[in-house]
Write a structure and sequence with these properties.
CATH superfamily of the largest domain: Aldolase class I
CATH architecture of the largest domain: Alpha-Beta Barrel
Helix content: 25-40%
Largest sheet: 9 strands, mixed
Number of domains: 2
Shape: globular
CATH topology of the largest domain: TIM Barrel
CATH class of the largest domain: Alpha Beta
Strand content: 15-25%
Number of strands: 17
Strand order of the largest sheet: 9-10-8-7-6-5-4-1-11
Length: about 400
């Protein structure tokens, strides 16, 4: 490897709680329907993961924590309190740490919001998806429009002043006006953050096996994004990542750490981790056993399904895979800092992207154009299989 590292990036923690009340037909996440969850056994397993990984991050503070799933709001307030207590005992929490928990709007989940807030969660991400009952029914969501409103109200009453609402568009049978209506409804609630992403048909999902026949076409889907984006901008929600919009000072710190190629511990079934090891001049990628039963039945020493050192091509591509999602792009010096590589290895791919109108260089910042955001997958593919063999040590004076 030619990568050279001189400092550690920011560190986050991701905790995966893999169970759901119902598996949605579009979902390709590591989630599993279950009628019973042994909370104490799983919280103990998460603590075992933490103890295994602590030697990798001694002395480093964590700037954000994200509890995702699955449906974390199936867990009791006591379980989340114990989880956070264990994490605080083992890790240095930054004084202004962002602690997010994903939640469903169902009545039983919303009843726990005050307990989560009291436990130390300070950001709630509520999976609304749509405010239209017909579309919620098509998506097989377990809540309705009125429950979505009540959940949001419960979150505010619990004390949350940092709330994200998840919305999807290009749903089966959805019109442009209906997509816009969902966003206007969300804006009326005045959350601090809105995640607005297009429904995609992923492999190994029910929708992939039984594809809906009435999906909006690409032209209508793009118009949905454009119109909804303009509305959110008009009402003060800055577009900072392909699917993310926030009021000033409310960008997701956890997701920004991913997109800027920071480090993170991954705890729980199927969780991924990425850790820079300056003393070893390497970046370690870890993946834990995916299936919850197999995960719980394994000893802490045998829960890793993958542990690899990223090579130079991996480092370069993964950095670009993430950073190109950012509307404001990235400073060229950050590529060297986070990947440990000479930025010259990007030059051929960057030139192609510039010529295609997918990227621009704005005063030393590489950022996607509107076309680059629209054809993001095409843009990312330009950075596959970079030639990292002809450029070696990092040289700060080198420019793109």
């Amino acid at each position: 490897m030619s990568a050279r590292f001189f400092s550690n990036p920011p560190l986050s923690v991701y905790v995966h709680l893999p169970w759901c009340e119902h598996k949605c037909p579009y979902c390709d996440f590591n989630s599993h329907q279950s009628d019973h969850i042994d909370e104490s056994a799983y919280i103990q397993a998460l603590n075992d993961d933490l103890m295994q990984d602590l030697p990798l991050v001694w002395g480093r503070s964590i700037t954000s924590l994200f509890i995702g799933g699955g449906t974390p709001s199936l867990f009791s307030g006591d379980a989340i309190h114990q989880l956070l207590s264990n994490l605080r005992a083992g890790l240095n929490f930054h004084p202004h740490i962002e602690i997010t928990l994903e939640a469903n709007p169902g009545s039983a989940d919303a009843a726990r919001f005050k307990d989560y807030f009291d436990a130390g969660v300070n950001r709630l991400s509520i999976g609304i998806q749509s405010f239209n009952d017909a579309h919620l029914n098509n998506l097989q969501r377990v809540h309705n429009r009125q429950q979505a409103f009540r959940a949001y109200e419960k979150a505010r009453q619990a004390g949350f002043d940092n709330i994200n609402l998840d919305l999807m568009y290009a749903l089966p049978g959805q019109t442009l006006n209906e997509a816009v209506s969902d966003v206007l409804t969300a804006i009326d609630l005045q959350p601090e953050h809105i995640s607005h992403y297009q429904l995609t048909i992923e492999p190994n999902t029910h929708f992939h096996a039984h594809r809906p026949s009435n999906l909006p076409d690409d032209e209508i889907s793009w118009q949905m994004q454009v119109d909804c984006q303009a509305l959110m901008s008009e009402y003060g929600y800055g577009h900072y990542e392909i699917s993310a919009y926030a009021r000033p000072d409310y960008r997701s710190q956890h997701n920004l750490n991913y997109w800027l190629f920071g480090d993170y511990l991954g705890l729980g079934a199927g969780a991924h981790g990425k850790i820079t090891q300056v003393e070893k001049q390497q970046v370690l990628r870890q993946v834990r056993t995916r299936q919850p039963k197999a995960y719980l039945n394994s000893s802490p020493d045998n829960r890793l399904s993958q542990s690899t050192v990223l090579n130079d091509q991996d480092l370069a591509f993964e950095f670009m895979l993430n950073a190109l999602r950012l509307v404001d792009g990235f400073d060229r010096a950050l590529f060297t800092e986070r990947s440990g590589l000479n930025p010259r290895i990007l030059s051929p791919a960057l030139e192609r992207a510039f010529k295609l109108g997918l990227l621009l260089d704005s005063g030393g910042t590489i950022k996607p154009t509107e076309l680059g955001l629209q054809f993001h997958n095409n843009l990312q593919s330009l950075f596959l299989d970079l030639d990292t063999t002809t450029v070696h040590s990092t040289e700060p004076e080198i420019q793109f």
